[in-house]
Amino acid sequence: MATRLFGKLVRSVSSHRAVETFASHSPLAAGLVHRFVAGETLDQAAVVVQSLNSRGFKATLDHLGENVANAEQAHDATAMALEVLRRIQDAKLDAYLSVKLTQLGLDVGEHLVLENANRLLDCAAAAGTFIRLDMEGSSYAARILEIFECLRRDHVSLGTVLQAYLYRSMDDARRLAASGAAIRLVKGAYDEPAHIAFRRKRDTDRNYVRIMEYLLGQGVALAVATHDPAVLGHACEFARIHDVAPSRFEFQMLYGVRRDLQESLVRKGYTVRVYVPFGSQWYPYMTRRLAERPANLLSVGGSIVREWRQVQCQHQY
Fold first, then answer.
1. Is 134 a catalytic residue?
2. Taking a C-beta distance cutoff of 8 angstroms, is the pair 155, 196 a contact?
3. Which among 14, 23, 59, 69 has most CB atoms closer than 10 A?
4. At 307, phi and psi to the nearest 5?
């Protein structure tokens, strides 16, 4: 209950411009950004991915941004995404691209978003890599899945995301699994009303496991995206009992979150892909991370305090 209330508070204040301006100049925010965002530039993000690859992790690169207001912004976002795809190929990074359709112009027009998405998919095909369409708020879910299925007729190296807290997601999972689509399963990070989504964590967790078991049984390319130790353990045990080879699925986690779990899974021989966001548009991403897991704020806040105390001690001697 306390976690849900904290999440609701974070979401309610995060939309205020004054809060965003304050956060942009806050030492605490700087600490959070450094922990969970791999820098503002592609060069910085590529260094992070190379480090992850050297330690046995795969990666997903995401240039932060969403809900562009005009065609020019959509074209700029597309140009950046094309640069990411080229960097993946040129630097031989073990990574692929995640992108939001609202970043490519979904709010501006369907023709525009299809044009931009097809440019990215053509480039990805030439580079021999993969693209994941991120899921967004529930008001976009149907349109994103419709566009995904449309694009996938001509581009097989394309995946999407399902959010377990939405009531519709089990039906979506059945339809997408029948077509062999690659799916990342997440719990969901947006504030959705009770007539659309489960509001209690235990209900979301139960639905997540239900969808996960179904997709593992269907043999789709599944990304189990969670930091929940209980769900991770259940996935490993379910796969063992039902002879689902570790090569048939992967775990995905966010950069900077539960690094201990990430390393433990890699040591056990599982594929772990780290979601690596970068760019200056970090504010919406960070507020969702805090709303879904308040411990992120406490953890980094404690680190900042400890580092400040160390500096003060050094100054005394």
1. yes
2. no
3. 59
4. -65, -40
Q: Are 173 and 220 a contacting pair, CB within 8 Å?
A: no
Tens-place pLDDT, residues 8-63: 544 444 454 544 444 454 555 556 677 889 999 999 999 999 999 999 999 999 99
Nearest-angstrom CA–CA distance, 84 and 43: 10
Q: Are 136 and 99 in contact (CB under 8 A)?
A: no
Helix (H, G, I), strand (E, B) or coil at 301: helix
- What are the angstrom distances between the C-alpha of 229 and each of 188, 235, 236, 272? 17, 10, 11, 14
Amino acid 90 reads D
Among 134, 172, 191, 205, the one annotated catalytic: 134
With a CB cutoff of 8 Å and minimum separation 6, the contacts of 244 are 216, 217, 238
Domains of the chain: 1-34+282-317 (no CATH), 38-281 (3.20.20.220)
What H or E segment, with its residue span, contains residue 47?
Answer: helix 42-54
Q: Provide the b/e sequence for 204-226 (b: ≥16 CB within 10 Å).
A: bbebbbebbbbbbeeebebbbbb
CA–CA dist 261, 270 (Å, integer)? 11
The catalytic position among 35, 184, 273, 289 is 184
The partner residues of 59 in beta bridges, in order of sequence, read 95, 274
Q: Is the pTM of this model over 0.70?
A: yes
Is residue 249 pLDDT above 70, yes or no? yes
Active site includes 184? yes
- Euclidean distance between CA atoms 222 and 204, whole angstroms: 18
